[in-house]
Design a protein that fits this description.
The protein is of the alpha/beta class. The protein has ten helices and 13 strands. Helices cover about 35% and strands about 25% of the residues.
Length: about 300
């Protein structure tokens, strides 16, 4: 369940442990904060709260278009599955923007959230003055909040961050993105009518409508798995505009191996496993069909190899 609350609407009835952040993607670094907050909550019988915003603050502050790694619904689902009791998607507005770090501590953490513990990353900042974690820790602890600072997670000599993962996704390096996320990157949306070209070629595809705020992998062909109402199918997904037939609309189209039926209007989730190749323009439709056959064979053989390893 998604909680969307303005500051004056928040009602907390017991003491809490709070962890804060955008949590976009809920990568392995974020999970360290979540794990710590949940552990403290269980140990001290506190309600564990993940405090996040309903939009990315950069969208509000600088009118940037930050493509998100996950929806609020996915964020809630994962946070609750990892033991968080309550998720607050608070609007990032002028009231929040105008608070100093001390005011944020007094008004939000102490008064509204009844926080006794605060779990944050070592690079975290809040308040219009953008005070660093040392200042925040000193002030909050004077107000009765024990602050737990979690070191940055480093992998491959790089800091694991949502912005870095977003760049990996958007340039098609799905395997690296998946390692930093700790799970497969996914997009979810409603199946819409396309040109039905895949059906004519012998590879009927599900055309996905994806929210414009969502980060979409770079153009190319990917090995995927597709979840439909709890059932999972092997997928070959093309992100692009079908240059061979002169299409100019960016599409996410997936051929589901072994699936028969009508998906129009249904919601599906596509999980990206690896990138096979760039999107190509072929000299003929026959060459396109031949390459599609090779792509599907490649994917099936790869899945079979992993099953029997």
């Amino acid at each position: 369940m998604t909680f969307l609350e303005y500051i004056d609407m928040i009602e907390i009835t017991r003491d809490t442990v709070v962890t804060m952040g955008n949590f976009d993607g809920l990568h392995l670094g974020h999970m360290q904060l979540i794990k710590k907050a949940v552990r403290i909550g269980k140990r001290e019988n506190l309600e564990s709260i993940a405090f996040t915003y309903d939009i990315h603050p950069l969208n509000f502050l600088y009118s940037k278009s930050v493509h998100l790694l996950m929806s609020k619904e996915d964020k809630d689902s994962i946070l609750h599955s990892r033991g968080i009791d309550r998720v607050l998607h608070v609007p990032f507005d002028e009231e929040i923007r105008g608070m100093s770090s001390e005011e944020f501590c007094d008004i939000i953490l102490v008064k509204k959230l009844r926080a006794k513990h605060l779990v944050m990353g070592e690079d975290a900042k809040f308040g219009k003055d953008k005070q660093d974690i040392n200042h925040i820790k000193e002030y909050c602890e004077k107000r009765g909040i024990e602050v737990h600072v979690i070191p940055l997670l480093i992998m491959d000599d790089k800091r694991v961050s949502s912005s870095h993962i977003r760049k990996l996704v958007e340039r098609g390096d799905i395997e690296s993105a998946n390692r930093y996320l700790g799970r497969m990157y996914s997009v979810e949306g409603t199946v819409v009518h396309g040109k039905k070209l895949g059906r004519k070629l012998g590879y009927p595809t599900a055309n996905l409508y994806i929210d414009s705020e969502k980060a979409v992998p770079a153009r190319g062909v990917y090995e995927t798995e597709v979840e439909i109402e709890g059932n999972v199918f092997i997928g070959a997904t093309n992100v692009g505009n079908n240059p061979t037939v002169g299409d100019k609309t960016l599409r996410v189209e997936t051929y589901l191996v072994g699936f028969e039926g009508d998906l129009y209007g249904r919601t599906i989730k596509i999980r990206f496993i690896r990138r096979l190749r760039n999107e190509l323009k072929f000299d003929s439709v026959e060459e396109l069909i031949e390459q599609m056959s090779k792509d599907v064979k490649n994917i099936i053989e790869n899945r079979s190899k992993h099953i029997y390893e």
